[in-house]
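The pair is set out directly below:
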Amino acid sequence: MNTKNFLSLIEDHPQKELIFAYGEQLHVPKAYHITEIKNVSIESVDCGGFSHSEKQTVVQLWIDKNETAEKYMTAGKAAKIFQIVNNVKPLSQNANIFFEWGMEGLATSNYQIDAIENSEDKIIVKMSVPVTACKPRLQMEEVGNSGASCSEKGCC
């Protein structure tokens, strides 16, 4: 999901609780904070020597283990935080959005959105950690050359 679509979702439903699920029955605790929103530019070269560039929006979620809350943050409050950030450092609206999350006993990772569950009173963002991928192999599969291997292309 890109940043623009996520912002539209939360702006359209300001009163709903915004819940982040990172596994089956695992949710970021109710007292989470959005502590930072990052514009990330990635410039990379893969094992085949091909150059790539992409932009991402990374939203850092943080929990103070001494703080409790009865309800989750509302989508409206999250939208206000995005507005503050966008006024200082404009966000790339077409960038894919990720959520940085970790806590004691759970390594910090950047999570991608797998699905959105939008009910009457809450928005549940279902997330997972993306797996690593070999970009040359993915590119070969995209063009229908699944029979070729990376080693035949001089990489991996």
